[in-house]
Structures are given as C-alpha cells and as structure tokens.
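User: structure tokens for Sigma-70 family RNA polymerase sigma factor, please.
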Amino acid sequence: MSDFLDQIEQAVPALRRYARALTRNLDLADDLVQDCLERAISRRSLFRPRGPVRPWLFTILLNLFRNSLRSERRHGTAVGLDDLATEPATPAPQHGHMELAELARAIQSLPPEQKEALLLIALEGFSYNEAAKILGIPQGTLMSRLGRARTTLRASNGNSSEPRLRTVK
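Assistant: Done. Predicted tokens:
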C-alpha cells in the first residue's frame, strides 16, 4: 500500500499540470485532481498492477473531466465576474508571451479528443502507446488525432512548419 501511495504522490504535479491544461481554470483543475485522487484511493482494489500507477491515474482524471463536460452540457455553467477575461489595455511587453498565449488559445480551441491526445504527448511526455491506453483508443487513432491537432495548430499559427511543443517536466 505504501508503494501505491508513493506512486500517487509522485504523480500529483503531473496530474495538476494536465488538469490545468484541460480546464484552463486553477480551481476546477485542483478539484479535478482531488476527485481523481479520492477515486483512486477509494478504488485501490480495482488497480491491477500491470505497470505504473501514473497512467491509471491519468485515465481516471480524463474520465472525470469528460464526465464533467457532459454534465456541463446538460446543466450549463455559471460564469463568475472574475472569470470574464478582458483584453489588457496595453500590449504585453514580450513578443514570446504573446505567441505563447496565442498557442494556448489555439490548443484550447482544438476538439477535445485532439487536445487530450496532444497534451498527453507534448505536455506530459507519455509514449504513444501509453497515451493511447489512457485515452482508450488504438495507437493509430491517437496518431491521427495528433496529426490533425498539429495541422490545426500550424494553420492557426499561419506557419507551415511544426509548432514548437516541448515536453515540460
């Protein structure tokens, strides 16, 4: 049990990073990770140690996220005044900051299945095989989604070259 909890603890920063990238909201991301950890610990008996705990946790987190999206579509979402973003009156002082913000907006505009795949590979550094298992799809489908996501990002960037996405650890 101790090894199981140690693996969960080590995965928390990556889970938070992925949840924040999916939701683009710190509070929602933290709630999502908390729900994921609660579910993993309470359903510890369902984990079949065929490998590390980390991919299992990402599968739980992704399923919880998808469930929340379905619920949101049925019930709608309340938007607080703090969540209403306005453009700054002055341009950002750094050109790189603007490009990063544009890339983040472009990633957020991707269809959910493309965004999930891209973030697992580019942000979390999962192998294609691991990401496909987390998403519950064949590896060929994953590759197709990644290709479409990258093509969309190149088009939104107005660039025919590959977008510069590095694995962040």
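User: Anything notable?

Assistant: Residues 1-76 form a domain with the Butyryl-CoA Dehydrogenase, subunit A; domain 3 fold (CATH 1.20.140.160).
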